[in-house]
Amino acid sequence: MAQQPPKPGGGRVFFGSPVNSAVSVTCLLLIGYVFWHVLDWGVMNAVWTDAGGPEACHASSGACWAIINARWRLILFGLYPFDEHWRSGLACVVVVLTAILSCLPVFWQAKRLATLWVCGFAIFYILMRGGMLGLASVPEEKWGGLSLTVFIFASGVLVGMPVAIGLALLRRSTLPVISRTTGAFIDAVRSLPLVSILFTAAVIFPFVLPPGFQGEKLYRVIAGFALFFAVYQAEIIRGGIQSIPVGQDEAAKALGLSYWQRVRMIILPQAFRYALPPTINQIVTTFKETSLVVIVGFFEIMASGNAAYGTGEWTFAYVEVYAFIAMIYFAFVFTLSRYGAYLERVMRVGQQ
After folding, report:
1. Where are the membrane-spanning stretches (predicted)?
2. Does any domain span residue 90?
């Protein structure tokens, strides 16, 4: 058997020829130049405290992190009452902790996951809404900041995932009426921008629904958010189902398993395994899309950041505010992507 030639190392790839060497050296110098200027602006010459106010930032050539020191409460908590910020912070921690616990294999059962998230959302609602246990009542219109962003994201994914499974199974129905109707519905919703769905849920529905069925605007927006997530995730799950060899379903039929037994024990576990990479990508995209709820009047973390530099004395420091918010988004998105990569390694997705 012929021996495979050794793969070229990194040095031979980047410096194997004069042209490659010139390009590599130029890129390294450019990266070093950008890194040095970012370090000089963001760390060495930056203003870190708000003791001198905006005047200290004007006198410096570096970043004005003083605005974060002065306005971090507004960025993280939005319009939530100042004296009750501890409730909003604790509620956000509860949702994040619930998400972390649900990632542990010990909770990977339907009943345990359902119990965990029901308890997590109940605690979140009690802390944020109040009106019981001696907590002051805070209406949903005053919720904001990071806690609202995390709540909308978690609610949209948790509500949308079962809907996505149902849509994927309906689209694969052997009855043409059901499969084609479901396919038309999925394609129709996917053709709409998320902003239009959120606007319809927040503004249009109150005019067409009876007074007793309107509900709070926040929950209508979450329903629209979940629907948008569900139609995309349904196609991802359907792709995972189509990756399963047909013989497995036929063998399960031969063993006498019912449709729901085949779905629960054979089809869905393998479908989620095959569809894991695009599912993680869709979840990450969904988290970033929560910033669109500002269109319908919610003060999530992006809108809170806009308000933080929107006053006359801090209008020049918008770059620092956006950098701070970007770091928060990066922390959540990077954690989600690394957990997805861990699941791929454990389940050996894409390997023979």
Report:
1. 12-36, 86-108, 115-136, 148-170, 191-212, 218-234, 290-309, 321-341
2. no
